[in-house]
């Protein structure tokens, strides 16, 4: 069986292929369009569907963001003729940050809502695709990503005045589907919190209450927390890495449990669930000082198999000193291969690693541009 890894960077999309997750062939940056502009585009989002071989990539170029599609594992690419997303013309302009100290984004008569970046792409059932966007919005496609519909209900949520921009920008950056319920969805917003729908996006309710903060006057707000990533394990339990502790919630409405006690730091970005084993979660801690580098400058994922009660480093094959690259929120994933899923992560130093489930890490690529997202799947 072959494996395909999509590596989104600040200078385009790279791909890597392997038959054994040990020896890799790397290609790129991919020229998604004939003019080659996407070879130097920022790739914040990618999604792949092993069942169909379909790939979607969100690229931000000189001409703005768009979505490229491949139906043959990345051998050829297609871009929509028209921009796939456009805010309704009659939608009132919304500031990107409501905080008192923002000092920017004060609307005037010429301001309009504009799609700035595509942060997340997620396949649903059939031809459904969900997209998380900056400014903070959610979009739905029912034609495999060719055109998208704006989700007005989330935009109009009464808690939107508590949503701030976060360090990277105001965006829906995480979309978690439910395998048994096509109308259920969980999203995370920076800095806005976690929201769920059970009616295909017609209504939304916040589930972030109980996640604490140490950077505001209210340490237990109902919404507005800076959530870095959310993942769902095989039995439906949610895990969240916040701008602070990591959390677990079996029933989010009933509250969240801090599971950071045995992690080397509470801070981090990426967190990934095992596709078939409940309670098996991997996180990539980051130092809590403002330099945002790995703890003790040693790059290492940490793994729990007991739902976060205890964590242990998983670092066989990785550099053991003097490493400064951080794994960003979408910089890690699994390929969901049955029986022995592969694990992958990339860093802001441009290095990418892969491992069999619980095995030794092998380097996929080195010295690429800043890695923003990593996605992987089995491929023929």
UniProtKB/TrEMBL annotation:
Superkingdom, taxonomy of origin: Bacteria
A Gene Ontology annotation in the biological process aspect, one of them, is:
xyloglucan metabolic process
**InterPro entries xref list:** WD40/YVTN_repeat-like_dom_sf (IPR015943), Xyloglucanase_GH74 (IPR052025)
Q: Which SUPFAM superfamilies match?
A: Oligoxyloglucan reducing end-specific cellobiohydrolase
Biological source species: Glycomyces artemisiae
Its ancestry begins with:
Bacteria, Bacillati, Actinomycetota, Actinomycetes, Glycomycetales
Protein name (database record): BNR/Asp-box repeat protein
